Amino acid sequence: MAKKSKNETNSVRVPVNKTYKLYIGGAFPRTESGRFYSPEVDGVSLGSICLSSRKDLRNAIVAARSAQAGWASRTAYNRSQILYRIAEMLEGRSEQFVAELKSQGLNVARAKKEVASSIDRLIYYAGWCDKYQQIFSSVNPVASSHFNFSVLEPMGVVFVVASEDSPLLGLISAIAPIIASGNSVVALASESKPLSAITLAEVLHTSDLPGGVVNLLTGNAGELVEHAAKHLDLNAIAFDRDNAEQLELIARESAANVKRVRKLCLDWTDVESANPYLIHDYCEVKTTWHPIEKISASGSGY
Amino acid sequence: MSAVSPNEKFETSWDLAPAPESTDHVNLESHYDLFIDGEFRPSKSGNRFASVNPATEETIAEVTEADQADVNVAIKAARKAHDNVWSKMPGAERGKYIYRIARLMQEQARELAVIESMDGGKPIRESRDIDIPLAAAHFFYYAGWADKLNYAFPNRRPTSLGVAGQVIPWNFPLLMAAWKIAPALATGNTVVIKPAETTSLTALKLAEIFQQAELPPGVVNIVTGHGEVGAAIVNHSDVNKVAFTGSTDVGKIIQKSLAGSEKSLTLELGGKAANIVFEDATIDQAVEGIVNGIYFNQGHVCCAGSRLLVQESIHDELVRKLKHRMDSLIVGDPLDKNTDIGAINSSEQLNTIESYIQIGKDEGAQFYQPSCPVPEKGFWCRPSLFTDVAQSNRIGQEEIFGPVLAVQTFRTVAEAIQKANNTPYGLSAGVWTDKGSKIFNLTSQMRAGIVWANTYNKFDPTSPFGGYKESGFGREGGLHGLSAYLKV
Amino acid sequence: MPTTLPSHFPTVDQVGVVERAARFTTRSIKKVAKMQGLRMVLNMIDLTTLEGMDTAGKVKHLCYKARHLHDQVEGLPSVAAVCVYPNFVGLAKKEVSGSEIKVASVATAFPSGNSSLELKLDDVRMAVDQGADEIDMVISRGRFHAGDTQYVFDEIAAVKEACKTARLKVILETGELGTLDNVRKASDIAIAAGADFIKTSTGKIKPAATMPVTLVMLEAIRDHFFATGQMVGMKPAGGISKSKLALHYLIMVKETLGPAWLDNHWFRFGASSLANDVLMQIVKQKTGAYQSADYFSLD
After folding, report:
1. Over the stretch C68-80, which tens digit does the pLDDT of each residue have?
2. Do C15 and A291 lie within an 8 Å CB cutoff?
3. B 265-324 → C contacts, CB under 8 A
4. pTM
């Protein structure tokens, strides 16, 4: 901070603190519960963070559900450009993210790496949006006179319990492959390092991503995972925490509507951790049959 | 003189004489042991139960009731076979065993078909023309994958999971065994499988084929019995992979019980598929598709087109044609080559179906059944039709698993899509229209794993099968069916 | 009955039709049903000779065969009709007199149908005047393909009028129609214009009758019956020479239209060599021994 000159002593500028809110349906509400928590790093508080309630979770799922069909119906090219746009916005605000990561306890080198990798990862998945279908689809040579093909379709709404330790890269690495195919997401940010997720919401908000496609919650996973697992309007849950008890709870309660459960826990700094199989993991395979008329050039066959 | 009598008046009904398939070439033992580690072995307990022909209510053979101890032995055999033999064998050699199995099934197809119809009640026309040929084709298809797995998963070197525990239903006994076993073997896994208690016999005949094919001991183990045996398999700590086909209720129990384990799971569960017919459809072929959709295999089909959504403008015409077609269906002896609809698989299932028919009547829907004769002994249900069904009627929402069709109407494309997807299930759907762009819209809007456009109930080993939502997860068949059995 | 050209024609999915047709062939027809079916087939045959080289002698022999299918077996039914060119109608009529065998004649510039309407009507009148019970006309396929369905309709209606009391069979020549959609469309036009029968083929073009084509035509007949309560007859012609196939056709008729059509007033086979194959089967059923063609007269 610059040294104050003497004739400015009477006009000390008070910094404006940011109010950290949730990101639901393209808006920035506070938690409906009115509850907050204050994570600390080395004894310094990161501020008041929304402690999301099950109602916030429900609202986020409603927003995600209503946004999903529209997002899935965007062209792959358009989704690709929007993911690319997110990377552009993130690049422009790199310094802010580095600073925030530092305040959350990462050293400078790791913070810079985290931001750079996050941007690169978005570009990586932006490129996959209009390509994974060609890798995983098939035309199936059935033994009858039918045209038969299988394509991937997004599952719907996915709840992500994002990485605790990698607050930006982990979050982006989990979300990007999910939304690449047209799913919408409700993600629970790192509890101890929630700032990056909230700032990421601002990036998403200015990236042409339709409201509701990604919804970000902050708070305590232990409070929310059971409700998420039992929620009948969620299609899948991705769990990126090292917590066997919570994972088992999710796996058990997800049977309520035969939810798909994915365990992540990858080393997101490894470039190989990004791959199109993660897009496939949040897709359904749909197979379509249609008869092929059999009339040959000789006119025979009918 | 003229030896002819002109314009002979014929008895107009011209009913077909009985044409029963011969059972002479069927070799059935009086009782069957468990198939473990390459040989038939009695259970530790010595308990057995009867496998009943649902068309005659007579016992065909006795089958062994396995228990936890038997399951333990089977899984141990499978583990040993996996670690020491099968997973180490070059894919090309594994493939040759699987090809052998396919060929032997083709050779013994007629016997397998007859047993399938005797044990499960399905018409011989279906077991002969669909179940058995498809089952053999499934082995033949996956045999070829065994040495090509690296090509299926770009940038990956997939490896087997280990021991697969598999539980299959009674509606397509041998075909479901093939759907489960063939991909598991091609990918280097070994298998412990439990057939459904009412239909174990063709799986046990398949065990004889494994012996004839000299499949290494322990690669496939077949343990028979009731639900507890299935539970013992899926909950066993040395099973790496569980594959289940059956009801959504049981699927949920399995999903719950596997929570916290490292086992991978695929589920193929129930359905309540919409079969949507637009006014611009090829109506006569749609009628055939509707019949094939719901009356195939007595409606014991998870992907059955049990909800007919018909555009209101053609409702009356279509229903008239449908009833006319239903009148020509022949219900009766599953072994008669002319039978279209065989026996209901068990008295228990017949009770379920009959209770749903009562529910439909109570709900005020209009009921129709042709007056065709049915045999006195055995479990029978004539093809059944309910019109005037509302989306909120139970017969329009719940899986009946019998030859009962619920007919609803719609007015617009949007309404058809909405009604079709308004269900927790998502296994299959049908769409009938002669307009190409409408087909592509509808097929992509259906939240279901298999969509038949201008056809219904078609199956092929190359074609992935499996559901969305509460119809389960994972795919069986085709390239996509491999990933259920591999670490990718 | 005043009729008009239909404004809408149902469409057909070929693969679905082929599947349905194949399913009829899985019906197993045994014992009593088989014998009864074979007798029906015999009684539904239009025994046919339509050659450029037809002579009075050939027609006489054909008519004798029609009345004496196989005298070695007592109590056989006769065929339904003999089918000849118009110039042999008088002769055929004389040869079958005293029996209930009908005489059918092809007319309307058979087989191409490429002539003026006036000449075609004269063709019909000549056959009718000589006593033809049935007229087998061909539709104008060229006009049909050119989109002039009104002409096709009007022509059939005019021929129907010229037939007076003779029953009119309308040959669609399905082998030249190109699609099953067109088969359905031509069937509906013919039925609306007053056809008593619709018939697949002249026998001069391949493919002639097939089960899928016949099924589409049967469905047109059934739909007309559902709409009006009026029955129309069906005659597949050409390519049906084996009794097993003929029985499958009867199954198809029974399950598509109903048993009321299992009568030679409503269903015919246009065939020449089918009769002997059916006779061989009947004798085989009676004796248990497989038969040889050498024991069955060719006329």
Report:
1. 999 999 899 999 9
2. yes
3. 280, 282-285, 288-289, 317, 320-321, 324
4. 0.95
